[in-house]
Design brief:
Layout: H1 5-28, H2 35-38, H3 44-47, H4 49-66, H5 71-96, H6 103-110, H7 129-146, H8 153-170, H9 177-180, H10 185-199, H11 206-226, H12 234-238, H13 243-262, H14 273-280, H15 282-296, H16 308-344
Helix pairs in contact: 1-4, 1-14, 1-15, 1-16, 4-7, 4-10, 4-13, 5-7, 5-15, 5-16, 7-8, 8-10, 10-13, 11-13, 15-16
């Protein structure tokens, strides 16, 4: 499918929001006080970027799955899209944080499997925790594609996700159900349903799309003012202890915003080139942002006399720039190689 400009903008905003959220720890971990950290719980707006990514992924990937030549083609396309850059980012992160080196954890992380330990264990590259759910979603789609049925694909995906979440709830989200049966998987389902409506050709009236975006933004800001406890912590999602709460709030808000962006009248190509670039580079920005921030956390002297609030903004800008460079230097060449591979791959029968 052609890229939707409004969705690319949203991806860019979500990526920068996640960077901004983590950049605040530069000052808080150094005992500094910043208005952005102290004002309500406004920094949690950045953490919601993850939920926006999950809904967008459900939207985009489910549509691409309906057009896949086969299950094998779908799995291959997704693997080559996300794994090479993730593997490179993980290995490079070990240069920044050699203390994170654990051969077993590294091997499992590169397989999109949660490392051994408790249900809260994160991969070698910490942001990779979201890719555990991403990979689980791809597995569900592959299963739905294998399910020979007259039901539309989106219904098969919905049935599989709901059954897995019910199974996870019944068994206390013990591993591996803390991933494949986690309620956060319902955020992908929201995207699948939005994709189904988009594929039907229906588009929202401009006023309704604007109202949905405004409502989602309002609820996010409202919760940010009053705090969302520990919803933002990866561990609270990985062990599913706060996943239902996260889905009921951030997931639904993200769904409103993504729905407003996907189902509005198309934005002309070439509009908002900076935000489109950030959207194109969002995966690289997300994967590489902790490399930069972990380097900077002990080198705040590089920011000179900047105030703590200015340090947060400067670190966000620098980290985002590194992500864009990684997109140009690594991600785009890898995508060209993957495209070449797909062009040479035989057309499988199933």
């Amino acid at each position: 499918m052609d890229k939707l400009v409004s969705i690319q903008w949203l991806r860019g905003a979500a990526a920068v929001a996640v960077v901004w959220f983590h950049a605040m720890f530069l000052v808080s971990n150094n005992g500094l006080q910043a208005y952005q950290v102290q004002y309500g719980d406004i920094r949690q707006i950045g953490a919601i970027g993850v939920d926006v990514f999950f809904v967008i992924s459900g939207f985009i990937v489910s549509i691409s799955a309906t057009r896949a030549r086969s299950v094998r083609a779908f799995v291959g396309n997704r693997f080559w899209r996300i794994w090479p850059l993730y593997a490179i980012a993980t290995l490079l992160y070990l240069l920044v944080r050699p203390d994170r080196l654990d051969p077993s954890a590294l091997a499992l992380s590169l397989l999109f499997v949660q490392p051994l330990g408790s249900a809260t264990t994160v991969p070698t590259l910490p942001p990779g925790w979201t890719l555990l759910f991403e990979a689980a979603f791809y597995a569900v789609i592959a299963l739905a594609l294998c399910w020979r049925s007259a039901r539309p694909l989106h219904e098969r995906i919905a049935i599989a996700i709901v059954l897995l979440v019910l199974l996870g709830s019944a068994y206390g989200f013990s591993r591996p159900l803390n991933i494949v049966g986690n309620p956060i998987m319902l955020e992908f389902l929201l995207g699948v349903l939005i994709g189904r409506v988009w594929a039907s050709g229906y588009r929202l009236p401009a006023w309704l799309a604007t109202a949905m975006f405004a409502a989602g933004t309002f609820f996010i800001l409202r919760d940010a003012m009053h705090g969302m406890y520990w919803d933002w912590k990866a561990e609270s999602t990985l062990d599913a202890s706060l996943s239902w709460q996260r889905f009921r709030t951030w997931g639904l808000y993200a769904g409103l915003i993504v729905c407003s962006a996907a189902l509005r009248a198309p934005v002309p190509q070439g509009t908002g080139k900076l935000m489109t670039l950030l959207g194109d580079a969002s995966y690289s920005i997300y994967l590489f942002h902790m490399h930069v921030l972990d380097l900077l956390v002990h080198r705040l002297d590089l920011f000179g006399t900047l105030s703590p609030d200015a340090i947060i903004l400067a670190a966000t800008a620098c980290t985002t720039l590194v992500g864009v460079l990684a997109h140009w230097v690594l991600e785009r060449p890898l995508m060209r190689l993957a495209k070449h591979w797909r062009a040479r791959a035989p057309n499988p029968a199933g």
